[in-house]
Design a protein that fits this description.
Elements lengths: L20 H10 L14 E2 L11 H9 L8 H14 L3 E5 L2 H12 L5 E4 L4 H9 L3 E4 L20 H11 L7 E4 L12 H14 L3 E4 L3 H11 L8 H10 L3 E5 L10 E5 L2 H14 L10 H13 L3 H20 L12 E5 H4 L9 H13 L1 E2 L1 E3 L1 H4 L7 E5 L7 H4 L1
Parallel strand pairs: 1-10, 3-4, 5-6, 6-7
Antiparallel strand pairs: 2-8, 7-8, 9-12, 11-12
Helix pairs in contact: 1-14, 2-11, 3-11, 4-5, 4-10, 6-7, 8-9
The structure holds ligand F0G.
Length: about 400
């Protein structure tokens, strides 16, 4: 593959340091082989997560200086609200300190014991926040997605036929909302097609069930739609994103992903009554509805990031560099979840290490070995993360946005 020209130049740098294999052995022992317990200063290249780890732009740092720290009615909030409404069209925009706070507020408002919330694949915090209310979180990925090696486009789609069967069997009353996660993080960072979102919209509308997006990586998903669905090939990523949001009744969002922010999130809904209940809950734990647990400057950084993340040059670089890592790993015979996703490459550790049984956590073992060998940190997405709900034993190499260059990846 040719050289990828990163579409930015670097103005501020952060040193990273090499460690010796013997030192790393000691750090691993001290950490109990838990990579979350290793101090970041002992990591060479940190691919634990793409969440909150992005490099902000000069425009974001400039916006931070413009942040208005008023308790109520902060001008920063109105700038954020305008940016979110321009993108999503949702009437109510409720800022939160990160994505899971939006999830907690949404699910504790709409879920009761006995309820069921379907998703293409729930992220772990989403599942946990649903289960904490006594409701049940159900994953409905495509049956073909079970095969990590199948190279099918839009492998993150929801199984719409399974959704229809679930609604038929359980009744719409038990389902307070249907959620689709774009891109499908726990399912390999795979995108969801517009056709699939439209099909979910049609079924939920027929049964009067609200449809929500877990929109953390909406821009990466929009780019995949532009590249992969002929009807959208001439649309801009922003137009595609607007269309995606227009199909939904609300969303949860972690600004730590596709907004390049180091902290932040929001919850949106078109239902004014629900928004009023959510804001009451917000005040209990997050703060007043014009800041929701964030500083005014954070709101401004998110507003700028939401616009920047949709630049075609950025998205082309982003998806090309993730695929670059994926192809290099796969070309050396290591099975990855195919095709490469948007924000991360997932190694199928169960397949790579068939001699390690599930109860000895192949993904975790591989993550430890990768750190021991190279000082690279990754994260297990398998039985350690999801317990008995794990479908695969994966090791995720997530790529922070605009942080590492092609030579780091090499
Ligand atoms: N939904 C998805 C799909 C996510 O990937 C995450 C976070 C959240 C919700 C929760 O957002 O962290 O801001 O509270 N994912 C990170 C990760 C932690 O590493 O994939 P949050």
């Amino acid at each position: 593959m040719r050289t990828i020209i990163e579409p930015f130049r670097i103005k501020s740098v952060e040193p990273i340091r090499q460690t010796t294999p013997a030192e790393r052995e000691g750090f691993l022992k001290a950490a109990g082989y838990n990579l979350f317990q290793i101090p970041a200063s002992d990591i060479l290249i940190d691919l634990l997560t793409d969440s909150g780890t992005s490099a902000m732009s000069t425009e974001q740092w400039a916006a931070i200086m413009r942040g208005d720290e008023s308790y109520a009615g902060s001008v920063s909030f109105y700038r954020l609200k305008a940016a979110v409404q321009d993108l999503t069209g949702f009437q109510n925009v409720i800022p939160t300190h990160q994505g899971r706070a939006a999830e907690r507020i949404l699910f504790s408002t709409v879920c009761k014991p006995g309820h069921i919330v379907p998703n293409n694949t729930h992220f772990d915090t989403t599942r946990a926040n649903i289960e904490f209310t006594g409701a049940k979180a159900v994953d409905l990925p495509l049956p073909e997605a079970c095969d990590t090696q199948a190279r099918i486009p839009f492998k993150g789609n929801m199984d719409v036929a399974a959704l229809a069967r679930l609604i038929e069997a359980e009744g719409a009353k038990k389902i307070p909302l249907v959620m689709v996660t774009v891109t499908n993080n726990s399912g390999g960072g795979q995108p969801v097609s517009m056709a699939n979102l439209e099909a979910v919209r049609a079924i939920t509308a027929k049964h009067g069930i609200p449809f929500y997006l877990d929109a953390c990586r909406f821009a990466e998903n929009a780019y995949f739609i532009q590249q992969g669905e002929a009807a959208f090939s001439t649309w801009t990523p922003k137009q595609i994103a607007q269309r995606m949001f227009s199909l939904a009744d609300g969303c949860t969002f972690s600004a730590k992903k596709d907004a390049f922010a180091n902290i932040g999130g929001f919850l949106c809904t078109n239902n004014d009554l629900l928004a009023a209940q959510e804001k009451d809950l917000l005040i209990l734990t997050e703060g007043f509805p014009t800041y929701g647990g964030l500083a005014g400057r954070d709101l401004d950084a998110i507003a700028v990031g939401l616009e920047e993340v949709l630049h075609p040059d950025y998205l082309q670089y982003r998806i090309a560099s993730t695929a670059y890592l994926g192809r290099h790993i796969a070309d050396h015979g290591v099975p990855i979840v195919e095709p490469p996703g948007g924000h991360a490459i997932y190694i199928d550790a169960g397949r790579m290490l068939p001699h390690i049984p599930r109860n000895q956590f192949p993904g975790q073992s591989l993550g430890v070995e990768l750190y021991r060998h190279a000082g690279v940190r990754s994260v297990e997405i398998g039985s350690v993360m999801f317990g008995e709900n794990a479908r695969h034993e994966l090791l995720r190499l997530a790529i922070p946005r605009r942080v590492y260059t092609q030579s780091h990846i090499d």
